Predict the 3D structure of the following.
Amino acid sequence: MPGIWSQQIRGVFLFFDEPGADSMTQGREISYSGYLQLDRILQAQQPLSAAHDEMLFIIQHQTSELWMKLAIHELSATCRLIAADDLQPAFKTLSRVSRILEQLNSAWDVLRTMTPSEYTEFRGSLGQSSGLQSWQYRMIEFLVGNKNAAMISFHRNDKVVVERLEAARCAPSIYDHTIQLLHRRGFAIDKALVDRDVSVSHVHSESVLSAWLAVYRDPARFWELYELAEKLVDFEDYFRRWRFNHVTTVERVIGFKRGTGGTSGVSYLRKMLDVVLFPELWQARTQL
């Protein structure tokens, strides 16, 4: 099927079918603003107070949600690629997600320029809204293996979102796919683990640890698996930094007050720092 290519001329994008297509001369013009739907995006910031810093708060969270949408897109592709034993493009998508997390980490740096007194000026306008209500963040957690079913309750009033999250929770995570890959590559993974209920979080397995130790002790023999392991570690490293920066930003702005959604605030976020997604990959480092 013919593809689509584009050329930008004086700020106007011209979209064409590939050379050879009958409609080659029937290009259609679309502006930069129209292609990106900038009118909709730039009108989506509607502060509820007169506080100057509320615009910063809105844009930081909106852009973070956009980056999370791309992360979900890339992580979903990574799961499909690993399941298909197509690891080379999976390395690319995993690397891209790590760079996305780098952007998300930088966003906290911008938000930290807001002082506690500046946040107080509009905090009351937020009502019961909370970052815990971000279904995209929950989707990322499920895709990478933190399957806490109780967290779906934050979205109970949105049937479509609940269905999406339940589907992700009940599907193999990126690490489940990786463990299945180790099994297919001939490593002695416990049968109970291969056949386990993937709707709950993975817990440490000696058979998986033994497989990763074999990979790390002979990387030349298991180069693809060795590279996959490092991409996963790189991802979790950035993910941990994102969580940590979230904690320190909240602590800097609101201290130990309760969160707007009724959560315990910083104390809840600190518990998330103890979550380990790929435990055997980290433990393997202590045994090499």
Remarks:
- The first helix runs from residue 32 to 36.
- The CA atoms of residues 155 and 162 lie 6 Å apart.
- Confidence is low (pLDDT under 50) at residues 1-6, 20-25.
- The beta strands are 4-9, 12-17, 28-31.
